[in-house]
Design goal:
By secondary structure, the protein is an all-alpha fold. Helix content is 86%, strand content 0%.
Length: 410
């Protein structure tokens, strides 16, 4: 597990480097307004992938790690499910953008939103296929397939902005190219590694099994994603794309501090799910992981704050200096939620993903209300206050919930 966490963390660091360079290139080449356009356009595929994935990803990890389905069967089933979900998503989203894009995304050029929409099926496929490798605990292949898209995206963005000088549209096409590379890498990895024996379980039963667990995790993920992105959406709605472009820098750097918690969670979820008959051991492993992740994230946060204070103007430009106070106010919630992310996996591994949903509903209510009240008077710092408070409340709820899993044998 230490080796897998270290390998996954290494991938997170390399991916974060690519994403950081991508943020710098886009921010400097496109300016705050162009960066805001890009951030809102990228929100379309990520929003749809999170809202419409039906929880197939976490359900795949849960059932493959327990041996309920073979990796080969999971790959075939997830490809089929991805096709249906993508078709459904596009049928719903296209009319919404045609009728209400000006209302939902004020000031954002429609072409960028449609380019974002084109990336949705690929974003969904990457998520569905990579979770099969995660359920197999094949973290070498899992990390390679996740690492490829950001670097392909970065290379394509440099070509589009510096070479072809296409602008925001070129940056969006580069995003699509990166996601396509991720899909191809995942398919190749699974064809090489997944066994070719398929159990006698009918395809209909596979879909039902995945969705019966997945919808509970899905609702939790939807609310959690809203919690992650409500501040960005409301900053654009209540302020301007330029303010969004500045605030998103603070958010993107702050979320990079979750690398360790993401790496630990990716490795722990299949392992905790396999501990179906040992709830005490599952809880002990969770507590140890959550404590280590929280302390390490706190230390890294202090270093990141000092670095951003010194480097924000030389790296991003003087117009982004207001990102610093927003970043500092995000840190308490970021640190608290690092440990809570690990605890969420214990709850899901115990077969109770709906508990995460109940917690997320409370937290998103706090976040939306806080952002709506604070942004008009305090700008992006108000958004950071509300978001950080929401994360802190979520951490307190998860701290109480995981103790209830010690008696669950599933």
């Amino acid at each position: 597990m230490r080796r897998n966490i270290g390998m996954t963390l290494g991938r997170q660091v390399l991916a974060a480097l690519a994403q950081f360079l991508l943020v710098v290139v886009i921010a400097r080449q496109l300016g705050p307004e162009g960066n805001g356009f890009y951030a809102m356009a990228i929100l379309v595929p990520t929003l749809m992938a999170n809202f419409l994935n039906l929880g197939v990803g976490p359900a795949t990890v849960y059932h493959v790690s327990r041996g309920d389905y073979s990796p080969r069967q999971a790959m075939a089933g997830n490809l089929k499910l991805a096709g249906w979900v993508s078709a459904l998503g596009l049928l719903v989203a296209v009319p919404i953008l045609i009728l209400w894009s000006d209302t939902l995304f004020p000031g954002i050029p429609p072409l960028l939103l449609y380019l974002g929409l084109a990336g949705f099926p690929l974003t969904l496929l990457v998520a569905y296929l990579n979770t099969v490798l995660q359920g197999m605990e094949d973290f070498r292949a899992y990390n390679v397939t996740i690492l490829l898209p950001p670097y392909i995206n970065l290379i394509a963005v440099v070509v589009a902005l510096y070479g072809l000088k296409i602008g925001v549209e070129g940056a969006m096409v580069a995003y699509i190219i990166g996601q396509l590379a991720g899909v191809l890498a995942a398919v190749v990895s699974l064809r090489r590694r997944a066994d070719r024996t398929v159990s006698g379980t009918p395809a209909e039963r596979y879909s039902r099994t995945m969705l019966s667990y997945g919808w509970k995790a899905h609702l939790s993920n939807i609310v959690t994603f809203v919690n992650y992105r409500a501040d960005i959406f409301l900053v654009n709605l209540l302020l301007s794309p330029a303010s969004t472009g500045v605030y998103v820098i603070a958010v993107q750097i702050a979320e990079r501090l979750w690398m360790l918690s993401q790496a630990a969670s990716a490795v722990l979820l299949p392992r905790l799910s396999a501990m179906r008959d040992n709830p005490e051991g599952r809880l002990a492993l969770t507590n140890k992981g959550a404590l280590a992740v929280t302390l390490a994230t706190a230390l890294i946060s202090i270093l990141a704050a000092a670095a951003l204070y010194v480097l924000v103007e030389p790296v991003f430009g003087v117009e982004y200096r207001e990102a610093v106070p927003a970043f500092l106010w995000l840190l308490p919630g970021i640190v608290a939620w690092a440990g809570a992310r690990v605890q969420s996996n214990c709850i899901a591994a115990a077969g109770k993903p709906e508990w995460n949903m109940y917690s997320a509903l409370v937290v998103v209510t706090v976040n939306l209300t806080g952002n709506a009240l604070l942004i008009p008077d305090h700008g992006i710092v108000g958004a950071a206050w509300a978001t950080s408070l929401a994360y802190l409340i979520d951490a307190m709820i998860k701290f109480c919930l995981i103790r209830k899993t010690r008696h669950i044998v599933n």
